[in-house]
Amino acid sequence: MDDREGSFVAVRRISQGLERGNTCHSTSAEVVAGSAAWLGRGLSCVCAQRRESDARPSFDLTPGQEECLQRLQSRLDVSYDCSIPEHQEALRALWNAAFPEEELRGLISEQWKDMGWQGKDPSTDFRGGGFISLENLLFFAKNFPKTFQDLLQKQEGDRSVWEYPFAVAGVNITFMLIQMLDLEAVKPRTLVGATFLKFLAESESAFDLLYCITFKLMDHQWLSMQASYMDFNAVMKSTRHQLEQELLLEDITRLEQLPSYGLLSQ
Hints:
It is a single chain. The chain has 266 residues and is mostly helical. It is 42% helix and 8% strand. Strand 2 and strand 3 form a beta hairpin. Helix 1 crosses helix 6. The longest helix has 19 residues, at 206-224. The chain is globular and about 50 Å long.
């Protein structure tokens, strides 16, 4: 996001198989600014908006679910802080996972745009998602490296000329999941949120795993809809709708049983 209020950043695919250093990546990209807000400041994805007037019930939690929710909420409260060594190392680890053959020249570098950050300092893009959005990306890279690379390099499907920027889309997904699951509430106020807490009570990494499922599902929807950057909000709304339906399916006791989990490749 540049300094003009209401601007967006899109990624234009230029060619296949361009070399960068000693590593051959599937695409090269240029970042282009435009005039319609969709990513970045405030993470103004339409699908993540909530009407404060909505009247919703609350669901009682077991002591175990309440404890798991509080631990997850503690993660949500952590902002990315570029002065904290652990946060710096996590950012470096993300780069190494994304481009293992290319040395990062600095935490502030034009290289970050190759991952789909909006500028040379990724920390500015974490404002909406917090440190957990970086943790989500790292979990994705470590546990599903093939899918992570496929999405990063846009290797699958008939891609648009103007593609979504990978990293910033990832921050949007973190934000959307927090809103969809109503994770900042003391108790869940939707059936989807209450259902998710059952998965969270079984596995502390449930949110991170759901993130991976959602990211791949979003890309699947993107390709199915033959989307371009102006369609990002529509794709996210479709992704959220599909995810909500799957979470409420009967006889689903683990996230690995969700139909969209099958889209992931390790």
